[in-house]
């Protein structure tokens, strides 16, 4: 068949993501219009012929255009006869959950978020009503998901794709905080497990939960938005609003930045860490040794190699201990926290190595780790850029201290038990 062309700038547009995830799962090729510019491309006479409303996404098909993201996603799924249920009843259930995700969740989430993003006027009573409506919807969804992995049957359906996409901005923005989601653990688990599946991850990227609720915009007559203090989540009272690119708000009225625009490299200034006196230790050599050493040889080869090459003048080692371990009651949520932290440290990868361990055989799980940084201190840019630092207790390690050295060795080597606690998971930053 002739090609399918999607008019949208897919960047962070959840409606485009619905279509692209379905295309990925069922194996249908969907091309994006190159250089689509929101506010320009969707206002041309040619575009208005495809959708007189001037809204995206629109899919051009050999039979004609289709608008409305749910309908487009359903069309792509139907091309392969997949994802929409295998019996009349299942098909109805898929439709039921799509309507639920659209009318019971998405509409209310929009009323909650869009005033905060500045796209709609703010009215406290509208927000209050929207939050109550989401709680009611989540209450029902939570009971339903208590014994289920997916919304319909035992596999992903179109209902899951649309529901996950509709939920993403609640998590990315932080309004679906751990505190807000606490009464809905099955919705929480459903979101993180389904969104981590390969087709979802490929299109949505790594989702990081915003840890600070966005400030409510001022009602009429109040101080302007910039003068308001963000409302922090309970667990991280001091944490400033995180800045990862993925957490930019969606732009319903204008163009979402294209993926390539978002990733455009900034002009490179000299990193202050490059101005430190040269060190004989080459971090990449250690990272290679770490990665290439077999587990059985780890102590004799990798650990010995590390201490042989470690340069205490040019590098420093730091223990980090999570301050709020009592929050870590669900293993995968705890792991997501660590993944988010390491993701936010990506910019320092060239100058750092770390091993973070999740310990314990029952909740609350402990997060402990060790960082190796270029230079004698935790780099200032890390202190400035990564709000996670405040969530950890930092102690400079003294490798001449036997206890410190053994602790570092254990984190690097990952034995089954560390400091008397079962090692649940270890994550390496290299
Ligand atoms: N219900 C529509 C919503 C489409 C929509 O609101 N699109 C926004 C971008 S996310 C848009 O095109 N806005 C431009 C405008 O309002 O002029 C769908 O699911 O596709």
Q: What is the CATH class designation of the domain at 273-429? A: Alpha Beta
Beta strand %: 5-15%
Structural class: alpha+beta
Q: SSE order, as H and E? A: EHEHEEHHHHHHHEEHHHEHEEHEHEE
Largest sheet: 6 strands, antiparallel
Describe the structure in brief:
This protein has 15 helices and twelve strands. It has 430 residues and is an alpha+beta fold.
Q: Any overview of this molecule?
A:
41% of the residues lie in helices and 14% in strands. It is α+β, with helices and mostly antiparallel strands. Among the domains are: 88-195 and 209-243, Glutathione S-transferase Yfyf (Class Pi), Chain A, domain 2 (Up-down Bundle), CATH 1.20.1050.10; 273-429, 2-Layer Sandwich (Alpha-Beta Plaits), CATH 3.30.70.1010. It is elongated. The chain binds glutathione. Residues 13, 15, 54-57, 68-69, 252-253 line the site of glutathione.
Keywords:
41% helix; elongated; alpha+beta; Glutathione S-transferase Yfyf (Class Pi), Chain A, domain 2; 430 residues; Alpha-Beta Plaits; 6-stranded antiparallel sheet; 15 helices; binds glutathione; single chain
Give the SSE layout:
Elements: E1 4-7, H1 14-26, E2 30-32, H2 45-50, E3 58-61, E4 64-67, H3 69-79, H4 88-117, H5 124-145, H6 158-173, H7 178-181, H8 185-195, H9 198-204, E5 212-213, E6 231-232, H10 259-262, H11 283-292, H12 298-309, E7 315-322, H13 331-344, E8 352-359, E9 366-374, H14 380-385, E10 392-396, H15 402-413, E11 417-418, E12 421-429
Parallel strand pairs: 1-2
Antiparallel strand pairs: 1-3, 3-4, 5-6, 7-9, 7-10, 8-9, 8-12, 11-12
Helix pairs in contact: 1-3, 1-6, 1-9, 4-5, 4-6, 5-8
Bound molecules: glutathione (GSH).
């Amino acid at each position: 068949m002739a090609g399918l062309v999607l008019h949208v700038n897919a960047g962070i547009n959840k409606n485009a993501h619905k279509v692209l995830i379905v295309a990925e799962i069922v194996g249908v090729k969907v091309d994006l219009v190159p250089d689509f510019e929101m506010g320009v491309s969707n206002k041309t006479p040619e575009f208005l012929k495809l959708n007189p409303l001037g809204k995206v996404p629109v899919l051009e098909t050999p039979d004609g255009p289709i608008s409305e993201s749910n309908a487009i996603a359903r069309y792509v799924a139907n091309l392969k006869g997949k994802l929409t249920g295998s019996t009349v009843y299942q098909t109805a259930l898929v439709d039921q959950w799509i309507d639920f995700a659209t009318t019971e969740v998405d509409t209310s989430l929009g009323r909650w978020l869009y005033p905060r993003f500045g796209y709609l006027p703010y009215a406290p009573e509208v927000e209050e009503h929207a939050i109550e409506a989401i709680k009611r919807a989540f209450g029902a969804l939570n009971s339903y998901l208590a014994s289920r992995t997916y919304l319909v049957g035992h596999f992903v359906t179109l209902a899951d794709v649309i529901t996950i996409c509709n939920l993403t901005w609640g998590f990315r923005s932080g309004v679906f905080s751990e505190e807000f989601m606490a009464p809905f653990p099955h919705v929480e688990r459903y979101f993180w497990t389904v969104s981590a599946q390969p087709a979802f991850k490929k299109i949505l990227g790594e989702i990081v939960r915003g840890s600070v609720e966005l400030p409510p915009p001022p009602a009429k007559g109040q101080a302007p938005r910039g003068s308001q203090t963000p409302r922090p989540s309970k667990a991280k009272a001091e944490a400033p609003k995180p800045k990862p690119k993925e957490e930019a708000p969606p732009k319903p009225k204008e163009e979402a930045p294209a993926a390539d625009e978002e990733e455009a490299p900034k002009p490179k200034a000299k990193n202050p860490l490059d101005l430190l006196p040269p060190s004989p230790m080459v971090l990449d050599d250690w990272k290679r040794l770490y990665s290439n050493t077999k587990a059985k040889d780890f102590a004799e080869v990798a650990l010995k190699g590390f201490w042989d090459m470690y340069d205490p003048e040019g590098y420093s080692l730091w223990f980090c201990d999570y301050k709020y371990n009592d929050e870590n009651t669900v293993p995968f949520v705890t792991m997501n926290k660590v993944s988010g932290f390491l993701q936010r440290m990506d910019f320092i990868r060239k100058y750092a190595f770390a091993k973070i361990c999740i310990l314990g055989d029952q909740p609350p799980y402990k997060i402990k780790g060790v960082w190796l940084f270029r230079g004698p201190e935790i780099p200032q840019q890390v202190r400035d850029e990564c709000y996670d630092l405040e969530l950890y207790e930092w102690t400079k390690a003294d490798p001449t201290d036997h206890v410190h050295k053994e602790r570092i060795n254990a984190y690097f080597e990952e034995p089954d038990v560390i400091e008397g606690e079962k090692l649940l998971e270890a994550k390496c930053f290299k």
